[in-house]
Fold:
Amino acid sequence: MTKRLLSRYHLSLAVTTLAMVVILATGCGPGAASTPTPEPVTLRLAFREHTVELQPLVDEFHEEHPWITVELVSTDRFANGIEPLIRSNSIDMFIESSYAIGYAREGLLKPLDDLQLGDWAPIMDDYYAGAWESLRVEGQQWGIPANIDTYVTYVNLDHANALHLELPGPEWTLFEFLELASAMNYPQGLPYLETSNLIGFCTAPDGMDAVIFAYRHGGAIVDSVTNPQVATLDDPRTMESVQWYSDLFNRYEVAPDPEMVRTTFRQGGIYEAQVRGACGVWLGAYSNRGGLDFPFQWTVGWKMLPLPRDSVALNLGNVEGYFIHSACAHPEAAIELVRFLSDRWEAAGTRLPARRSLAESDGYREHVGNDVADVAAGLTGGEIVILPAQAGPSLERVGGEFIRSVQEIVAEDRDARMVLGEAQDRVRTAFQTP
Structure:
């Protein structure tokens, strides 16, 4: 009888113990703390169409954060469709160029503090220098870098192959640049297609090319792009570079007459010439490749090369950022989404990932191809000067004077030192407080 009672006791103890294990394991015991289910959240994210494929990324985010639903709002790539959404409080967050920090003055952006950005601290050094600063005003952060764009060289591969040209390698120089432009310069008609002309180097004096060449030669138009205090149009290296640029038109004749461009390509000028395959070599944004950043796809095969080497490995670029609307009811969820996107090169779309490690990753290389990836890898090793979000009237005045001077030097074949010296006199006091 005692043995039977003892066996029943042991069996009861075993069942009770097993039940306690199950209860504790499932967190349902008297002392267990249950994790509350987060309230459902919906975020409306606006972006420009055809710049990035976000749907797979937000689907993946939703799997990890099932209580957060992201509704994508796409706007026309080449129109300003995001602004009405911002002003009508119709979105929670958006991806836009650094110019969007201007909305902060109107109270339309939510400021970001160190606590919110704490998850970025371990990877902050992985971003291109200046990316975060370009989305900051007087110490206040308004956006988180989403991507980078910068300048590269493009070559018309169809005509280069037809002309049996051997293209230079990534360490090519300005001398090789001129050689290639000359070898692809057929303004009177191609030898194998006399009805078609080919411009050796497609460029326009009122564009950014002269500025790019000046800075890579070690020159500058102001003492600091991000905090200009002094105009430097009379910098000897700036003058040398502009003279060389003018010689491309007037001495070497590999660049087109601006009037010819206006009359021949009436819809879009030099950009139309690129799209229609009338250019041999040209400078363009990294995101332009194949027409990704154009209303129309390019009609020819192309190859991307880095900018030709000069005195300094410096490039000019700009940043797009993630911005949170001041009316966003769930900023914590928005920050969670941005942090998720910040780890994925896919979120950069047609542009360069804002983090160097993502630009150098195997997945990104496979996506863009070896030629483009090689150029991207080269960009991670050089300095990219991020152009300011808002130039300000003084910098705009100096920049405008520089462009007008370049146009005059090219059009009239004038001496760059004389013209830029005169321009410097006109803007010498541009940054002085009245």
Q: What stands out?
A: The chain is about 35% helix and 15% strand. Residues 1-33 have pLDDT under 50 and may be disordered. Residues 2-25 form the longest helix (24 residues).
